[in-house]
Amino acid sequence: MLFSRLQLAVSGEFAKFSKGQWLETVKFQWRTFKDPNLKRQFKQLSVLGTAALPEDKYEKYEKTVADMESIYSKAKICAYNNSEKCDLSLEPEMTEILANSRNEAELKHIWTEWRKQTGATIRPLYNDYVKLLNEAARLNNFTDAAEYWLNSYDTPDFKEQVAELWKQLRPFYLEVHAYMRRKLREKYGESIVSKRGPIPAHLLGNMWAQTWGNIAELGIPYPDVKPEDITKYLVQQKFTPLKMFKTAEEFFTSINLSPMTEEFWKYSVIEKPKDRDIVCHASAWDFYNGRDFRIKQCTEVSEEDFVTVHHEMGHIEYYMQYKDQPFIYREGANPGFHEAIGDVIALSVITPKHLSRIGLLPNVTQSKEADLNYLMKVALDKIVFLPFGYLMDLWRWQVFKGTIPEKDYNCEWWKLRLNYQGVKPPTVRSEKDFDPAAKYHIVSSTPYIRYFVSFILQFQFHEALCTRAGEFDPNNPSEKPLHQCDIYQSKEAGNLLKTVLEMGSSKPWPDALEVITGQRNMDAGPLLSYFAPIHNWLKEENKKSGEYVGWESTEKGDI
Ligand SMILES: O=C(CCC(O)(O)[C@H](Cc1ccccc1)NC(=O)c1ccccc1)N[C@@H](Cc1c[nH]c2ccccc12)C(=O)O
Ligand SMILES: [Zn+2]
After folding, report:
1. Is it the case that residue 442 has pLDDT exceeding 90?
2. How far away, in angstroms, is 337 Cα from ligand 2 center?
3. Which of 12, 112, 520, 537 has CA atoms 20 to 30 A from the CA of 179?
4. pLDDT in tens, 525-536
5. Which ligand is located closest to the Cα atom of residue 343?
6. Ligand sitting nearest the alpha carbon of 439
7. 447 alpha carbon – ligand 2 mean position (Å)
């Protein structure tokens, strides 16, 4: 508790300081300023955030979020069929079981017990949090917290743009969903996975069913050309978390981005401590002194964590490139940019070509079948993620606006999960439960639409950087397919990326996007063309097997 008291004291101090600064800036008629740069800085400075709350309410807000996060980070459950062993944490134990167990009863146990430990206890706190965040939003002249969060994109029709992107991508998601439902039905039987209904959420390899890459082996199109699991090679070659970080760093420096600083290696926490509970959800921190940048990650030696290392290091690279900007511009062009950088690099790293190049895979068989296997695996992480990345804030925007009243929190959550993801809970849920709180970003008040935006942008960035690296030719896409591109050691690609990272938030995000891609809008095109081969294969496959594409909302026998 000492640590959290310290944390509260520091955030209180920072709130007082920033309120003082804010009072200075609002004295100016900055809206009439002529210099666009000065006007932009004052505009960004004029949003104070939660520090606008009176001191007592600010402390209540900070304490409520800290308590929700603490319950989430400390939650433990008992193992399946062993009520003696009750020290299972979300990371690594529950995450590992959901990824690797194929025992339906065990998966149901873990899924349900985690939600018992997080949802019911957090529910009363969440209601206070919503009221206080809305009050802070109004003190910043926003109608509610939804508008306050959306202000980060500074785009009047942002919600419409996101809805349009989802409309373009939903048909592809439905094909993946229908195909995997069939594979899961073949594995677990029709009594558990129906022909035309939603998929039970506990079978999908992830606590939130947000990515299905961990069950890729159930859906590989050509099993006899099965892609090797990188985890096996990471373990075989005695990779440690440190070696995973050093390997990731070497990719960034190979494209002329910056190495991690001395402080980074000195102060980062890259393994779960044995002696204390920490918030294990990965994060990257900027200490705003141009040298001190840190990652906190409970890293396991696994493929999934190797990708997350690159995701977190992408944040650090952004911090380092914009460290000389004025304080107020030391942010991403928009929050989706910050989430996309590491993932763009990871798109090159996970290619069989790159992994065999750095000795993490035996030399690969080039074939149409191997290609489709690879694309399926990436689609199970990238396409599958989109509905989840969207619905998280669809739910929260409605909660902040009051269109979802407290009494319907859980029911409306599952309506969105059914409508967008086509998943259903493995056990009956009620308003005694509060399943959104099973997800870190809900309890830590971290917006989520940034990841949906990132998953669109990262393919636009990938296409542009691969073109610059000579790894892709937009006029002749079939010669060098985008999904085989690896920008490793391309200084041209790295320098193009660096130009945007250095900008921070000093220009509107369409300007930053234009520097990399020549376009000013989010565009699903690059993502769709990256996955085109597997998209076509899935349409064929589902037609051949007569699979029902989509899902019915009420099932016979379901209450
Ligand atoms: O949450 C994360 C990674 C954690 C983070 O790097 O995004 C972290 C979340 C966080 C936010 C605020 C406080 C504490 C943690 N965000 C940052 O560290 C961060 C850094 C700079 C600016 C903004 C946020 N990923 C998401 C989804 C995701 C997107 N790309 C991925 C790639 C691999 C695995 C997961 C993801 C998730 O796990 O649901
Ligand atoms: Zn991130």
Report:
1. yes
2. 10
3. 112
4. 999 999 999 999
5. 1
6. 1
7. 11
Beta-strand ranges (E) seen in 144-257 are 199-200
pLDDT tens sequence across 390-425: 999 999 999 999 999 999 999 999 999 999 999 999
Q: Which phi and psi (to 5°) does residue 4 adopt?
A: -70, -30
Nearest CA to ligand 1 atom 6: 283
Residue nearest to atom 11 of ligand 1 (CA): 446
462 among known catalytic residues: no
Q: Tell me if 319 is assigned to a ligand binding site.
A: no
Closest CA to 287 of 307, 274, 268, 271: 268
- Please give the pLDDT value at position 557: 45
CA of 207 to the centre of ligand 2 (A): 18
Handedness of CA 193, 196, 200, 206 (dihedral sign): positive
Flag whether 315 is marked binding: yes
Q: At what angle do helices 104-139 and 368-401 cross, to 10 degrees?
A: 50
Confidence of residue 388 (pLDDT cuts 50, 70, 90): very high
Amino acid identity of residue 219, one-letter, is: G
Protein residue whose Cα sits closest to atom 22 of ligand 1: 338
**What value of ipTM does the predicted structure carry?**
0.98
pLDDT computed for residue 558 by the predictor: 45
Q: Tell me which residue has its CA closest to atom 3 in ligand 1.
A: 282
Could you read off the pLDDT of 59-81 as tens digits, one per residue? 999 999 999 999 999 999 999 99
Q: Which of 69, 175, 312, 471 is catalytic?
A: 312
Active site residue 441: yes
Q: For residue 468, which of 441, 496, 489, 448 has the smallest C-alpha distance?
A: 496
* Atom in ligand 1 nearest the alpha carbon of residue 210: 39
Torsion of the alpha carbons at 131, 137, 138 and 143, rounded to the nearest 10? -100
Band (pLDDT 50/70/90 cuts) for residue 559 is very low
CA-closest residue to ligand 1 atom 28: 451
Q: How many other C-beta atoms are found inside a 10 Å radius of the C-beta of residue 531? A: 24
Which residues of 247-328 form beta strands (DSSP E)? 283-286, 293-296
CB-based contact 449:501 (threshold 8 Å) = no
- For residue 360 the two structure tokens come to 């993490």
**What percent of the residues of the chain are helix, what percent strand, and what percent coil, each to the nearest 5?**
65, 5, 35
Pocket of ligand 1 (CB under 6 A): 281-284, 307-308, 311-312, 315, 338-339, 343, 444, 446, 451
| Mean of all residue pLDDT scores within the chain | 96
Max CA pair span of the chain: 70
Ligand nearest to the CA of 310: 1
Single pTM value for the model: 0.97
Give the residue from 20, 12, 22, 2 showing the smallest Cα distance to 56: 12
Of 304, 308, 505, best ligand 1 pocket probe by most atoms within 8 Å of the beta carbon? 308
Neighbours of 54 (CB within 10 A): 10
Question: For the CA atoms of 66, 69, 74, 76, what is the dihedral angle to 10 degrees?
Answer: 150
